[in-house]
Fold this sequence. Notes:
heterotrimer; A: alpha/beta; Rossmann fold; six-stranded mixed sheet; four-stranded antiparallel sheet; 10 strands; about 25% strand; B: mainly alpha; ABC transporter involved in vitamin B12 uptake, BtuC; 15 helices
Amino acid sequence: MTEPILRVRNLRATVAGQQVVEDVTFDVPATGVTAVLGRNGVGKTSTLKALLGLYDRTGEVTLAGERIDRLSTDRIVRRGVGYVPEDREVFAGLTVAENLRLAERDASPRRELVADLFPDLVKRSAQRAGTLSGGQQQMVSLARALLNDNRLLLVDEPTKGLAPKIVTEVATALAEAAASAPVLLVEQNLEVISRLATTVVVIDAGRVVHTGDAAELLDDPDRIQRLLGVHTSENAA
Amino acid sequence: MTSQPTTQQTSTPPDRATAPLPHDENVPTPARRRWLMLAGGFALVVLLACLPLLAISLPGVLPGPTYTPGTLQVLALALLVGALALSYHLLFGVAGLLSFGHALYFAVGVYGLAIVLDRTDLPLLPAACVVLVGGIVVAHVVGAISLRVTGISFAMVTLAFAQAGNVLVRRNPAGATGGEEGLALDTTHVPDALVGVMNTRNLYWLALVVLVVVYAVVLWVERSRAGHVAAATRENEMRVRVVGGRPYLVKLLVFVVAATLATAVGMAYLLLQSGAVPRVTSADFTLTLLVMVVLGGVGSRWGAVVGGVLYTLLDQRLGALAASEAIAGLPSVLRVPLSEPLFILGTLFILVVLFLPGGIAGAAQRLSHRRRREGARDLMEESA
Amino acid sequence: MSTIVLLLITGLGLGALYFLVASGLSLIYGLMGVLNFAHGSFLTLGAFAGWEVARRLGADSWGIFGLALVVGAAVGAAFAALTELLLVRRLYERHIEQVLVTVGLALATVALFEGTWGSDPEFIEGPAWLRSTTDVAGAPIPNDRFLAIGAAVLVLVGIVLFLRYTRFGLIIRAGVENRAMVTALGIDVRKAFTLVFAVGGAAAGLGGVLASQYFGYVSPHLGAHLLIFAFIVTVIGGLGSLTGAAVAAVLVAVLQQFANYYWGVGDLVVVLLLALVLLVRPSGLLGRSA
C-alpha cells in the first residue's frame, strides 16, 4: 500500500455552535476516486467543508504528510486542493471567462484541457455565469478546479439536479480529472459511483461507519440498503 | 463564527479525556449562588441608599465626601446612566438588536417632560405619564419600521431615525426645544423636594429607585417567555420561525420595553440636570451607551450597570484630569490626547473589544471560574 | 426656473460628496460585512490634511489645491489601510466586534481632532474660481459644486474601471458575491480587504477636501455629519451596490435640497424616504434581495 494522500483523524466541526461533524476518521488513497456515501444530512458536505477549513474544526488532517488542519482555506487550496462545491457556487455576476480567470492559480493553467473537456464554455465565455443552465454552471465549477494542477480534488455532489445526459458528461469529466489527481467525491447517484469510485467511505450521523473497496460494497445490495437506506433500483436515474 | 453579540461562550468541546471534577462542598450550587447574589444585591442597594447619610471619601474617584451635593449629583448621574445602559442591554445583549438610535427614546423622556412641564399646567406625575405614553408610541412606530430589516441595516435605520430627532430638536420648532441652547426645567409644577441643590439627595434616591425599577423590569423581561424567545431569536432566527415563534413581534416588544425604560430614565435625568441639552439626542450619545454595555460585558445585566457607572465616573474624572496642572505641563504629543476624555475612553473601548472579550463581566467570570477550579483541585489533592 | 436649476446642481454637488463617502462604505460592507463607523474620520483627516497643505503653501493656486486633493486622498487611504491592518483584521469574521472597533476609533479620533485643531470650524480658502459662480440657465451656481460633481464622476468611473479590469477588482466583485468561495479558490481575500479600505479611504479623503470647499470650513465633525447621510444613502441604494450608492446619493441629496428650500425639512424628508424604501424594498433600490 502506498501512503494515502489525505489522512483524516478525529475530525470534528461546528457551525454556529452546532456540531455538524463528529469524530470522522478515514484515509483517501493516492490514486482513484474515493466516494463519501451516506443519507442526506449525515454530514458529508460538512466533512468536505471542514477539511477545507470553511467550518471551524478540530482534529488532525494531513495532506501528503503535511498537517493542514490549522491552515486557512486559501492556504490549503494553494497546497494543491481543488474544490467543486455543492450547488456549484459560481459567481453569478461574473462572466464565464472571469469565473475561470479568478480560479487560475498556477503559472501555466491548463486552459487547453478545460477547453477540450467543456467546449460549450469557450463559446459562452462572455456570458454571465448566473444566466447559465445548471449543467453549464456545474461545468464552470468543475473547470475552475481542473484549471490547476491539484494533488487532491474535493468534489461535492456534482450531478445533483442535473439531467441524465449532463450527468454522463460530468461523470466523463470527473473520470478525466481522476486520471491526474485523486478525487474525494460526495455523490448520491449510485450509477456515477459505480462508474467512478474505487474506494468508499460511508458516513452516518456524523461518523464513519464503513470504509472499503467500492466494488465490494456495490456488489452487496443488502449492505447498501442497510448503510444507506436506499434501494439500488431507485437510484438508476 | 460569533456574529451574534453574545457573551463570549467558551466554545471548546468538552474535553473527554479529563474525568469530571468531584462535587465540591465549598462550591455554591446554582440555587445557593442565586441566593447569595440576591442578598448581595440587596445589601448593595441598602448601602447605596445610605450613602447620602454617610461621609465616605474616595479621593480621585469622587469629588468630595458622599453627603455633599456635588458628589451626590455625580453619583446620581452615574446611577441613571447605569439604568440607561441597562435598558440598552435589553436591546443589544438580550435580543441582539444593534441599535444606533437608542438616544432617541431617552431624549423623548428628557425633552418630552421638559416641554410638557413648560407648556402645560400638568403636575409632575400626570406629565410624566403623558410623556411615557408618547415614548411608547414613538418606539412602536420606529420599531415597527426598522425591524423590517436586520443586522447592520437595522443599525443604520435606527441611527437615521435618531438623527431625525436630533435635527428636530436643534431646529427648535415653535421655540419648543430651545435649539442649540437647550431647554431649562420649568420647576413650577415640580414638587419642592426635587428642586434645588439642597435636595440633591432626594434626586439621588430617585435615581436609585429608577435604577432598581429598571433592573427589575429587565430581569422580568429576560425571565419571561418573550425574553427567552428574544434570546433564541438572537441565536438563530430561522429556527424560532420554524418552531412557530414570531420573532418580529417579540423583537418589537423588547424594542418598545427598552425604549420605554429609556424614556423613564430620561425624565429622571431631566429632573437631576434641571435642563435638556441637544447632546442627549445625538448619535454620539447612543454610541457612548454602546461603549458602556460592551465595556461592562455584552449580555450581562450587572455588567451593563457597572459599565454605565464606570463610564460616567471616568468621564467626569478624566474631564477634571484634562483641566489639571499635571496635564498642562506635558509636551503636546501627550497633552492633546490626555486632555480629551473621549479619546481615552474610545481607546479604552477599542482595547476592551480587542483583548477583553466579554468586558468586565467576562473577565470577572473567568477569574471566578479559575478560582473555583483551583479550589476544586486543592480539594482533590487533599483527598488523594 | 433658475431656482430649480440652482437647487438641482447644488443637490448634485452634495450628492457627489455623499457618493464619495458612500462608495467606500458600500464596497467595504459588500466585501467584508463591516459597517465602518470610522469612515467619517477618514474624511475629516483628509480634509484637515488638505487644509494644512493649503495653509502652509498658499491657498489660492490651482497647483497647491491639486496637491491638497492628492494629499487628502493619500492620507485618507493610509489611515484606512492602517485601520484595516491593525484593528479590523484582528477580528476576522466577527462582524459586530469589527463594527464596535470602528465605533471606538471614530469616538477617539474625533476627540483627537478636537484636541489638535480645536472644536470650532476653521474657514477655508482656495483658488478664487471656486469662490465665484457660473451662470447656468440664469442661475448663479457656486463653482465648487462643479468641482465636486466632476470629482465624484471621476471616482465612480475610476472605481468601475478598477473593478472591471484588474485582478483585484475581479476578486472584490467575486468576494462581494461569495467570500467563502473566493478563499476556496486559493485566494487570500484579506489582501482585498486592505485594498477596499484603502480605496474607500482615498475616496473619503478626497471627499473631505472637496466637502470643506463645499461648506466653506473644516471641523472635527465634518465627517460625522456626512457619514450619517452616507449611511442612509448606502441603505437606500442597497448595501454593497456601487451603482446603487451613486443613484441613491443623487436622489437623497437633490430631494434634501428641494425639501430644505421649499419647506425647510430636508433632513426629515430623507429619513422618511429611507422609511418608505425599507417598507417597499427592504434590500434597497439595487440591493440583492436576500
